[in-house]
Design goal:
alpha+beta; Beta-Lactamase; Alpha-Beta Plaits; 3 domains; 16 strands; globular
């Protein structure tokens, strides 16, 4: 009777454990799919932002309307391809003509796109209204069986009052190394497969033999994100099941033989130790409690699984500590990070006289008017958009932070006065672009002050100088750049 009862309990427990691990596996697979899809859409939006920026240049407008042989070689280089994350660019007319086109990762030599690309672009842009100020979008095209992410915008002057009658298209193939493995898939072998928009979605996660397959439709794009991999927690599940089996067998044997002492030594004492450690971990703040692993039995397998869980919890704690040092609204660094960056830049300047860097202070013009007239949610949206555009504009190695309110700071490393002014001029244009909010567009400008980092100064000196220069920019009419000079003090 005891054996039958034990077998029944073991079967029920095993089924419950198996179902629990199955839910965990499915949730994990769904989370990976959701995060990768969000990253893909974010990358597409970033590419569209850059595309709108280029399409709204006066240089681009003059190139389309008047022609400029040096325009392509100057603005679309291999370096800019890397920064923009695109493989090719093309100008497409409202009549469907494609040209000129440039494969930027093959030496920057303009050449016609293949017919398959031209046909895909013509189908995409046929009947599109090109005269709207915010004309443009992203799309995922299938060209010769390869997924291609594109962003397109209408070419206008910088004031968006004149339209050149052409689209500027950025394209990026999502094929890498012979497989469709986007670089933002966290190292997982994701695939992108074509999917008809009216195709039934089906189960998001399915088990096919020893492989789990997750599928997520990237609506409204005609594609699905697919991940195939074996279950990640098979060993942990087997360890738990083995532990359950061993424990049940031990209980039966100990009940028959009457070896209460052996049972206490092999099982109960260790469970008591686990319980004590669990109680300790629930009361100790910031502790690194670990379940002891002395051998390779079932309880040790469980201990390893619990230890792994504790490590993941500690990683999340470290992430929270990181977030504590950043601005919660914009995800930029805070004043503490800025002061540390300035300290390092000053030390580098003292050690290497040829090192040049500067502090750029960016302050929104008449931001209070937006807050007062439209509410703080509109103001928050403006601050988030400004932060995103600043992060898109800076280089690796530069540091961008939000000082508070409507004030941002950027530390430009290894730069020259000409490069710094060019960066700030481009930033003025980028930040003056419209910002969508609900059913309207918001506009703002910024005043920028530059202070050059030099030995003998400290972070507070640099902030004061940059603030003086920025204040001078506001006195001169806002929406401009002023570099700190001795006369600015007055």
């Amino acid at each position: 009777m005891l054996l039958v009862a034990s077998a029944l309990v073991l079967a029920i427990t095993s089924a419950v454990v198996g179902r629990g691990f199955s839910w965990i596996e499915r949730d994990r697979m769904q989370e990976l799919l959701n995060r990768s899809a969000a990253s893909l859409r974010s990358s597409a939006q970033a590419m569209l932002t850059s595309n709108k920026d280029y399409a709204g240049w006066d240089d681009s407008y003059r190139f389309v309307t008047q022609g400029d042989p040096a325009y392509l070689q100057t603005n679309f280089t291999s370096d800019s391809a890397t920064n923009l994350g695109v493989d090719w660019i093309a100008f497409v007319g409202i009549d469907g003509t494609v040209g000129p086109a440039m494969h930027m990762r093959t030496g920057g030599v303009p050449k016609p796109l293949p017919p398959s690309h031209e046909e895909a672009l013509q189908q995409l842009l046929a009947g599109r209204e090109i005269h709207a100020a915010d004309a443009g979008d992203t799309a995922l095209l299938w060209v010769s069986g390869v997924p291609v992410l594109v962003a397109y915008s209408a070419v206008t002057d910088s004031a968006h009052t004149r339209h050149a009658g052409r689209w500027l298209v950025f394209g990026r193939s999502l094929r890498a190394g012979g497989k469709v493995e986007p670089e933002w898939t966290m190292g997982m072998p994701f695939e992108i497969q074509p999917t008809a928009l009216d195709e039934p979605a089906g189960a998001p996660v399915e088990l096919e033999g020893a492989t789990m397959t997750g599928r997520l439709v990237l609506s409204p794009w005609p594609a699905s994100l697919v991940l195939r991999q074996p279950p990640a927690y098979t060993k942990q599940r087997d360890a738990v099941l083995m532990w359950l089996l061993a424990s049940m067998a031990g209980l039966v044997i100990l009940a028959i033989v009457g070896m209460a002492a052996l049972m206490r030594h092999k099982v109960l004492l260790r469970l008591e130790r686990f319980a004590a450690l669990a109680e300790e971990s629930s009361t100790v703040q910031g502790g690194a409690t670990r379940w002891p692993v002395t051998d390779d039995d079932e309880l040790d397998s469980l201990a390893r699984a619990l230890n792994a869980m504790m490590e993941r919890i500690e990683e999340q704690g470290a992430l929270l500590a990181h977030l504590a040092s950043h601005d919660p609204l914009t995800e930029l660094g805070n004043r503490r990070q800025l002061m540390e960056s300035l300290r390092l830049a000053i030390e580098l300047r003292s050690a290497q006289q040829e090192s040049t860097a500067c502090l750029v202070l960016v302050d929104l013009d008449q931001f209070k008017t937006i807050n007062d007239s439209m509410g703080h949610s509109a103001g928050d949206r403006v601050l988030e958009t400004v932060a995103e555009r600043i992060m898109e504009a800076i280089r690796p190695g530069d540091v961008a932070v939000r000082l508070g309110g409507d004030e941002f700071a950027i530390v430009l490393a290894d730069t020259t006065p000409e490069q710094a002014h060019h960066f700030c001029d481009r930033l003025l244009i980028r930040l003056a672009h419209s910002m969508p909010y609900e059913d309207r567009l918001l506009f703002t400008t910024v005043s920028i002050g530059i202070a050059w980092i030099d030995a003998g100064l400290n972070g507070h000196d640099l902030l004061r100088r940059a603030d003086r220069a920025m204040y001078r920019a506001k006195q001169l009419g806002r929406n401009r750049v002023v570099t700190y000079e001795a006369t600015v003090e007055g």
